[in-house]
Amino acid sequence: MEREVESVIPGRRAVLEALRANRPIRKVLLARTAHGGVVREVIHEAKRRGVVVQSVDPHHLNELSPAAHQGVIALASIRRTVDVDDIVEAAQRRREAPFVLVLDGVEDPRNLGALIRSADAAGVHGVVIPRHRAAGLTPAVAKSSAGAVEHVLIATVTNLVRSIEVLKQSGLWVVGADAAAAETYYAVRLVPPLALVMGGEGRGLSRLVREHCDQLVRLPMRGKVASLNVSVAAGVLLYEVVRQLESGGTPSRARS
What we know:
256 residues; 13 strands; Alpha/beta knot; CATH 3.30.1330.30
C-alpha cells in the first residue's frame, strides 16, 4: 500500500534524478540566476518529458523550500512510500536476494539523505524507516540524497520491531551494528538475503531492536572517538556486503 509524503523537490541533482526516474513532475522552477551544466541538463530533461520550466525570482524558491535549493525546485506529484513486503517482492521480481537497510531512529535529514544515497549506490532494494521519532522524507532529505530517493523504495513503518520480524519471515538474516558486539563486521558473512540495521545518532540501536537482530557486529574504533557518523558506518557495512558478494560471500577472518 502506498502513502503520501512530499511534493517539493529542491536541489539541482535531486530534480534531475527525479526527472530521469520518470517521477510525475508538474513544473520545474529555476531561479533567474541559476546556470551551469547541471541546470542545462535539468532544462533538457524537462523539455524532453514535456515538463514546464519556469524562470522565477530566487526569493520565491526560498519561500517554497527551507532546504538549500541551488536555484532549482521541482513541484512534483506526492512522493509515495511502500510496505516492507513491497521491498521484498521488488527484489524477487528482479530474481535477486533481498538486500534491505533498516534505520532505527535517524533524526538528522542530512544523515538520512546520505544513507539513502549510499544504499542506492550499494544496490539496496529498499530502506525501512520509523514513522515517528525519526527524520521523514523532507525536501532536505531529497537534496542530501542527491536524487537517490527517487530510485530506492522507502517503507515508513509504525513498528520497527514488527517490520524486522516480517523481514525474518521472508527469509532475511537481520544484522545490527552495535559498538558492544563481540564480532567485527569483516569476520561475519554478510550476503543477501540480508537486512542491515543501523541505530540513530548518539543512542545507537534501541533495546528491542537490538534484541530482535539475528546477529550484531561492530566497527573497530582505533582512535579516540567512540563511534562513526551513522551514514559513514552504514557505508562501510554496505560495501562490505558488496565486497563479499563479489568474492563469493567470504568474510575476512583478520582480528581487530
